[in-house]
TrEMBL record:
Gene3D superfamilies: 1.20.1260.10. GO terms for biological process: phenylacetate catabolic process. GO terms for molecular function: phenylacetyl-CoA 1,2-epoxidase activity. It comes from the Bacteria. It comes from Agrococcus casei LMG 22410. One of its GO terms (cellular component) is cytosol. This is Phenylacetate-CoA oxygenase, PaaG subunit. It holds the Pfam family PaaA_PaaC.
Amino acid sequence: MSTTVTSPDDELQADFDALIEAEQRIEPRDWMPEAYRKTLIRQISQHAHSEIIGMQPEANWITRAPSLKRKAILMAKVQDEAGHGLYLYSAAQTLGIARDTMTEQLIEGRARYSSIFNYPTPTWADMGAIGWLVDGAAICNQVPLCRASYGPYGRAMVRICKEESFHQRQGFEILLELANGTPEQKQMAQDAVNRWYWPSLQMFGPPDDESPNSAQSMAWKIKRFSNDELRQRFVGMLVPQFEALGLECPDKDLRWNEETEQWDMGEIDWDEFFDVLKGHGHCNAQRLQHRRQAHEDGAWVREAAAEYARKQSAQLKAVA
Ligand code: BYC
């Protein structure tokens, strides 16, 4: 009689597969394949860096917001983004990577962050376009991530999505006010939307047939939908919102296709996208330089916090 010999690793893999199959969450205490851990670190750290770098284009307008109310809202939004970065760095730390390592990878230019944050923000309407389009795309991408198979990532996403919804509405409202203002204000809103529309579609990542990570990430239930599926969903959401704003969609080829029941879109400039990923966008160098400077300027805060923690722990030991 023959028996099937299984190694301890096979059993662990089988337990992991069963958890994924049953839509259960993988938690930091659970065994996981090394490739799953690495994929999560790649995506979560990139996501965290995006939140942190993403503070810069909007922070650029805090001192120039057109009213006290707008300034308070923008400050709250930018602070929210810092919070998102911190939840996500914490989620990545549960996978065994140190915060310092992730920071080093970012400031040395070895880590990715979303392509979208390498575009400039020359007018106030850019604050509206970022909130509406960039946070809008982020929500579309992140709502399914609330069901990501890795517990700490999915849970961080729930809170982040609630805050992103507020961000998206405040952006829409800025644009609505401008679109209903003077002809110059309406034109400023249209120009900003023209500049942010295509990069916001690129946020979802390359087309499915050029997305090397999607298939495995979907099999592991980290990603729930493909890049193109989410891009479709996003465009479908925008169409009635363009009408409500009274602004024109920059994609003149956009059509609903009755046969495929999909949006046929104009050509997305993927050469530009890959160029930005290589570091050649308008603001790549500036964003990294600014982050590096902020890190250096904050050295004394980190040193003071470490010294305070050292004294606290010495005091506790003395009492014990
Ligand atoms: N930008 O195989 P693929 C926010 C890379 S912040 C740069 O499809 P995957 C906000 C990709 O990493 C929220 N790189 O990859 C903050 C991969 O390269 P590597 C930002 C991109 O991972 C402040 C390669 O291209 N959201 O909302 O399966 C103010 C091939 O791609 C991009 C997130 O970070 C891109 N756009 O799917 C306002 C979402 N797209 O890593 C707002 C979390 C692709 O192999 N991330 N690449 O060297 C994800 O959902 C997924 O990682 C992606 C890509 C859909 C982005």
